[in-house]
Amino acid sequence: MTDTYAVIGNPISHTKSPFIHGSFAATTAQDLVYTAIEGPLDGFAVAADAFRAGGGLGLNITAPFKLDAFRYATDLTERARRAGAVNAMKFVGKRAYADNFDGVGLVRDITHNLGCALQGQRVLLLGAGGAARGALLPFLEQNPAQLVVANRTLATAQAMALGTAARVCGYGELVGQSFDIVVNATSASLRAELPPVPASVFAQARLAYELAYGKGLTPFLRLAQTAGVVLLADGVGMLAEQAAEAFAWWRGVRPDTAGVIAKLTVPLV
Ligand code: ATR
């Protein structure tokens, strides 16, 4: 019997996940279908129950349901608990196992696809929302020389970094500091805004990474490029890698991501 998976979000028409997982299934010869579900804004649990009742084995979860999925889960991994959000679930009988692969997908893209080790590096993470929370633990697991989290609202960053080795500051304190890797996990680029990051942070940087995907050269990436950063990347690789992690978790086989990354890449111009 063909196994069923889906991504659930609202809106969902923009999603690349059916294309990505369809490609993975084809290249790994897995017998599955992967669809997109537009869940009602106040009805995540009902939609998830209906999907399971129809035989669905696993879901990816995207905005705005990552917190609903967190509450729906019966079993959470440590990184999903720390992130406070779930982006993948696996259903076995009455259990709803939940994980968050966004951060590990980001780490794999940086270290494997882009060839930049995080270990021993000075890393600056901008933002303290859901995207940054997902990245925090996976980044720290790579043993960077330092991880600094900068956010407009200091208290949010302090709460996020509590009990970890990350250092927290406001944007103003970044003047004169430099880093090897700078990652924009704010939502500023979704509105073509620039987080108030001083250009000096890029003086010695070898990588500027924008989590938003498909926006071309965002104000953040443009600032980094002007400051002389050679390696610029957006979140297309992270998107493919988090999908590959979920696919491997569900199916026991890890697909190669190079093909889907090549097809989904939007030039940074
Ligand atoms: P997401 O789930 O995409 O991370 P979020 O949880 O709403 O979205 O978090 C948005 C993040 O982007 C926050 O860190 C926010 O900063 P504040 O906590 O100070 O609000 C940050 N952000 C959004 N727009 C920004 C801007 N123009 N400049 C700097 N930071 C911005």
Can you walk through the features of this model?
The chain is of the alpha/beta class. The chain folds into two domains: 3-100, Leucine Dehydrogenase, chain A, domain 1 (Rossmann fold), CATH 3.40.50.10860; 103-236, 3-Layer(aba) Sandwich (Rossmann fold), CATH 3.40.50. Helix content is 36%, strand content 20%. The protein is built from ten helices and twelve strands. The protein has helices spanning 17-28, 44-53, 66-72, 78-83, 102-113, 130-140, 154-161, 219-226, 236-251, 258-264, and strands at residues 3-9, 32-38, 58-61, 75-76, 88-92, 95-99, 122-126, 146-150, 167-169, 181-184, 207-210, 231-233. A six-stranded mixed beta sheet has the order 2-1-3-5-6-4, with helices on both faces. Helix 1 (17-28) crosses helix 9 (236-251). The longest helix is centred in the last third of the chain and has 16 residues, at 236-251. The radius of gyration is 18 Å and the shape is globular. The structure holds 2'-monophosphoadenosine-5'-diphosphate. 2'-monophosphoadenosine-5'-diphosphate (ATR) binds next to helix 6.
